[in-house]
Amino acid sequence: MSITRRECLRLGAFGLVSAALPPVSLRAAPPRFKVGVTDWNLQQTGKLEAIALAKAIGFDGVQISLTRKAPFPLADAALRAQFLAESKRVDLPLASVCLDILHVNYLKSDPLGQRWVAEAIPITKALGTKVILLPFFGDGALKTAAEMDYVGDALREIAPAAEKAGVILGLEDTISARDNVRIMDRTKSSAVLTYYDVGNSTGNGFNVVEEIRWLGRERICEVHLKDNPHYLGEGKIDFPAIISALGDISFAKWAQLETTNPTKSVEADMKKNLSFVRRLMAP
């Protein structure tokens, strides 16, 4: 006889679980995701040095910014070769890239934003990564249905190139999970997914655990973990519940720490936050 986690909890609430039954873990499965870090929070935005620093701290990978410069520095094949060589030398993967220039040319309204997404796709493929973070913040934040529709239509035009390259376009923003899925559906492409940031979603009043479970692993390309300006576990976000939810949906991609440094010591503060996450992930 088998019993699901939900059934166990329901029966247990009414005192109906037999003592003869084997114990059932409250966690359906231990989390299997990889823990990386953003190069900008290492204070090494777009720099080669971010790779070795992330390795020294103990991360599984590093998220690289394409910076706000155009043309992108990493459009240069020689520079990409340096990044790939350094990644191989220190044995640390380049996890994904961030299209930082969308903080300047907003994808919701500026045709240049669409151009930058298209130009980032071959760079991302050449780096051996699979995800491009598309940020929507500040004046570029999505606030109306019309803006969301504009983004969906713009990405629909670009998505076939992403699909062909095996690259995912990840939406990181301040809107609900359901609004993100509406944009995804409008693109009519499997190459557009949600880049889920637990800090952004909490700050905008959404129930993070519910949204993660509702989205499931198939609609989330990557996750940002943060509760700035606090250390993880010392602010208002319930990280044990979040890590458990990621385990329950069998999320096995990248979760990147986008945490600030309260003591101004990048290595010490990052190590503290990384250790906290790894403890929560332990069986």
Q: Quick gist of this model?
A:
By secondary structure, the chain is α/β, with parallel strands linked by helices.
Question: What are the key terms here?
Answer:
single chain, 283 residues, alpha/beta, TIM Barrel, 2 domains, eight-stranded parallel β-barrel, 10 helices, 44% helix, disordered N terminus
SSE layout and pairing:
Blueprint: H1 5-13, E1 34-38, H2 49-57, E2 61-65, H3 77-90, E3 94-98, H4 111-126, E4 131-135, H5 145-165, E5 168-172, H6 177-187, E6 192-197, H7 198-203, H8 208-219, E7 220-225, H9 239-248, E8 254-257, H10 266-281
Parallel strand pairs: 1-2, 1-8, 2-3, 3-4, 4-5, 5-6, 6-7, 7-8
Describe the structure.
The chain is of the alpha/beta class and 283 residues long. The chain starts with a helix and ends with a helix. Helices cover 44% and strands 14% of the residues. It folds into two domains: 1-28, no CATH class; 31-281, Alpha-Beta Barrel (TIM Barrel), CATH 3.20.20.150. Helix 4 (111-126) runs parallel beside helix 5. Mean pLDDT is 92; it is low at 1-25. The relative contact order is 0.14. Strands 1-2-3-4-5-6-7-8 form an eight-stranded parallel beta barrel, surrounded by seven helices. It has ten helices and eight strands.
Which strand order do you get reading across the main beta sheet?
Answer: 1-2-3-4-5-6-7-8
Number of strands: 8
The secondary-structure class comes to alpha/beta
Q: Report how far apart the termini are.
A: 24 Å
**Main sheet specs:** 8 strands, parallel, barrel
